[in-house]
Amino acid sequence: MSAARYSRRVVADDWLRLASDPAWPICVQIVVEGTALPDRTALAAAVGVAAEACPGARLTRHGHRWVDTGRTPEVRELDGDAFDRETLTGLPALYRPLAGDRGGPTCEVVVLTGARPALVFRAHHAVMDAQGLLTFARAVFQALRGETPETAADDLDAVELLRRAGTGPRKTIPQNSQPPLRAAGPPEQRRPAFLRRTVDGRPSAVTAKIAHALARCAGGDLDVSVTVDLRRHVPEARTTASLSYALSLPVRADDTWRDVQQRMLESLAVRDELRETPPLPVIRMLGALPAPVTRALYRGIDARFGQGKAYAGFQVSHLGRLDLADFGGGGFTAETIYSLPTWGVCMIPMVTLVETGARTEIVLCGDDTHTALARRFLDTIGDALAPPEAVLRGRDTSPEVYLVPRFAEVVTTSPDRVALSESGREVTYAELLGLAGGVARQLTDRGIGRGDLVGVVAERSVAGAAALLGVLMAGAAYLPLDPGDPDERLRGILDDAGVRVLLAPRPHDQRPLGCATVVLDDVPPAAATPAAVTGEDLAYVIYTSGTSGEPKGVEVTHRNLAAYLGFALQEYEVDSATCFPLFTSLAFDLAVTTLLPLLAGGRVVLVPEAPNHVNLERVLTGSGVTALKITPSHLDLFHRLGISPSGIRLAVVGGEALTGSLAAIARELFGPDCRIVNEYGPTEATVGCVVHTYDPAADTGATVPIGRPAGTTSVHLLDDQGAHVAAGETGEIHLAGEQVARGYRGRPDRSFTQLADGTRVYRTGDLARRLPSGELECLGRADAQLKILGHRVEPAEIEHALARHPAVERAVVIARGQVLHAYLTASAEVSEKDLAAHAAEVLPPYAVPVSFVVLEEFPRTANGKVDLRALPGPSPVAAAVGDPVDEVLAAVLGIWARTLGLPAGTIAADSDFHRLGGTSIDLLAMIAAVDRELPGVALADHLAAIVAAPTPATVADLVPDPQR
Ligand code: AMP
Known about the structure:
There is one protein chain. By secondary structure, the chain is of the alpha/beta class. Helices cover about 30% and strands about 25% of the residues. It has 25 helices and 41 strands. The chain has a six-stranded mixed β-sheet with strand order 8-14-13-11-9-10. Strands 15, 31, 32, 34, 35 and 36 form a six-stranded antiparallel β-sheet that branches. Strands 5-6-7-2-12 form a five-stranded mixed β-sheet, covered by helices on one side. α2 (about 40-55) packs across α3 (about 130-145) and α18 (about 630-640) packs across α19. The longest helix has 17 residues, at about 430-445. It binds adenosine monophosphate.
């Protein structure tokens, strides 16, 4: 053992702390909870190495000096399962007194074993303060990680620190109100009562908010002492000594937390904590008193506390923002850290707080005779830091509806009702069950069942609907694929998802998708008994755009789906008279709503072809459709195609923001008897989970509110530090409840996370605020995600896809309106045509940019990022004017100019519709206008040709001869 090297004076503050009740010496205690405890021998060795670097951990008192014993602090082991993590009781052995001045240990490390392992660092407060103990704890973990711990071996003490810092004139310490938690009675009859609360994120101005909340709960003025680490005045000091003082912060009953915050900052700015310490001579005098005299003095003062005569209040000690990574090593990963308030003779109730990772830990310590009151204080703090208004809960009144059993029930009760209509063909429930049974049989024969995922090239056809049902009947989950997506993308998705079997109709069965394929057209109907599944089994996986550059598969379980179906059937009053058309891709979960009638004896009208003005008019006016699930872009389309739907009683609009003007158009289109619902929800929370019925009288803002959570869903609005926002403030929507999906297939993602109370949430990236009406208003995205005509698009995914072209160095994609434009730097000559062809090979059609601009280099902002606003406009379109044109072409050019809002004469015969800024909706509107205005023309039948070469010349060529 080395000779004692380190020593420092015992100063007055140390004496005061040593004068505490011997049965409960004032201890600083920090709990680091985590996983997988380190090997005990390694831990003991690390404690030794850390104590060498921080010899304050090995001190004992010899007369008027603290001296280094050279002994490594003890490492004890206790059964952590006995420790209640809220009241911090159940483990009296944890709180073993640390002797301070009686030759025993002044510092130790306790290992809590069990289900929630933890390391507890303990030190007598006369020797260390919380910052000192944190320094030591960090050193232990550094040693565990094999790093050299930072040393903290200065012999600076509080007296010397005050001398160096200069104390300044004294301020009067305000006197005040009742001691809120201090019971009468001698110290030996009292024990501390700890209560712990964890709140989400890192609330701003947390100390001021806590001080304010305490005063509110105390019912009047309150003096709060804020612990200040004096090291701030000597930043070069490296010591674990007790160097924290209290800053007195009077809080008045009518203060707001902002007043308190301002007062605290002003006080800190003028270093008030230094003025409030006793003057140096007094400190010296106190330090010279024999310990029994100091103890008697303090017991006398303590007795006055009990009668409410002396000043009392709360102490708030904020240990700061800790990086959990600093507290891991030797296999141990820290998950959270909290600190137990000090307690003892003459001490007022105290609150400690620690910000760690995604949460803030608060521990309140009062007297064990006042636990109910302590809980009230803590609840008030909790409400101040996590305002209850930031949480909106669904009504949760609807039962879960499991798809296959419910469908089977409907088949039993109404076998002959029509389930599906497709171009004049009608399929009854019994027939649909037979078709689905056939698919299930094919899969079962191939050994596919529970736990498997089956790809389905999902056309909007009877076979497509039967395929989805059949997969579920087999107990497997389906992965719907849009037939319009390029092979490479579909192959990538199937590979990523680990799909072994694909169901595809002809001719898609011939596509090189790398999977064994069952040709749907060849599957005969069959009877099949639905396989048993649990709520935790997967129902479907839907791929959506991913920020990492690859699409990611959202895994939706039967329970997730049952929760959506339960609320949606009830909320939308779906019954046997309900008829939805299906004209959107089954590869998006929007279509799930459309299939609701199949669970209620209603009917689904299938629109197999791409929607255009002819088939939409037919379906929306003459097919008995009563309800719709659409995006706002569809509303715009109907309006621009001049369609006048009839008989629609319900329009569920979702997928993107519903503007007030589109909602008004919807009302115009569908009439006053139609209920228009704004349904919000990402694929990750199963179709939709927040709903609002449009009210033209009340919803007069620019966007229609998204309303309130439905079913089991609750919405938490959190700020960018993860803390719950105050009433009316903007926060990011975090969704909780049964609809929150299992996660992304094969890739853990931090968007699926947990709140401090263990609630599982999905972080949406959508910003919203709670309106005074209690409804939610969506305020756009917190990130770069876009919606292009209802399709979710991550620019990063397109950029990665473009960068896979061998000539492309880097790509940046932006949206202008609803049109995507790509900007690139290239390592070799590359044409726009090449780039467009590459994009079409790897991206879904809606994600293919309409223009590709190759740049020498990207314009940059001052801090080096690509300056999106400085990107040039797309290269000019082909010059047009002056070419001789025939009458038909002239008419087409006129319609194009009108549809695109461009001046007449700026469009050439070979101009590309999309390069001119036209969206696919504009294209359909243009086609409808040509059909309407040029008699005998039916461009809607030639959509593919127009999409392939969207120029006025193509359109004019499709106009039949007699027109020319
Ligand atoms: P998706 O997963 O494709 O359904 O896209 C989900 C995203 O679409 C959400 O995170 C929102 O950004 C947006 N979204 C969906 N419904 C609405 C709505 N009713 N109002 C505003 N945005 C919406």
